[in-house]
Amino acid sequence: MNEFLENFKKNVHLRTAHSELIGYWSVEFGGRINKVFHIWKYDNFAHRTAVQKALAKDKEWQEQFLIPNLALIDKQESEITYLVPWCKLEKPPKEGVYELASFQMKPGGPALWGDAFKRAVHAHINRGYTKLVGVFHAEYGALNKVHVLWWNESADSRAAGRHQSHEDPRVVAAVRESVNYLVSQQNVLLIPTSFSPLK
């Protein structure tokens, strides 16, 4: 894992020459260890296809990073997601830790559960203990899946805020409505790498 991250750090400029890196993190807990999570921005599907073709022809990227590191990669997963219309990608004010909350919702899409989910997210924002970075809805991968990326100053400040929110009747009411459409949820604590644009 350390070798992989060090190699990526040395060669990240080769990858970002092709498309914008939003953030790059390592999983601290809540998921599989020795795992990285990263978000890349594309204008559309044609842009992503063009980037993939360019990377395949980029000898520097292939020879300096990809080929030497293939033996270090055990598994890779990819999802295509988009920011929901009511959310803009926000940059936190300073360095901290991130929480990726992934929700598997019932079939039906945002037309069924979108408003209730939005109210639950905003109820947490209004508490002020955490900062919303972005809400992403899966287009490819597991459908009816929503990822909410939060920023906190520390894992302890996140825990304290969560405990307070559990006692807030506005949060409780909003969450109680949203869980009617929830199938499962997983929360992962993410630590930003030194080369991640989102710190």
From TrEMBL:
This is Protein NipSnap-like protein 3A. One of its GO terms (biological process) is mitophagy. Belongs to the NipSnap family. GO terms for cellular component: mitochondrion. InterPro entries: Dimeric_a/b-barrel, NIPSNAP, NipSnap_domain. Residues 1-88, 98-197 form the NIPSNAP domain. PANTHER family: NIPSNAP-RELATED, PROTEIN NIPSNAP HOMOLOG 3B.
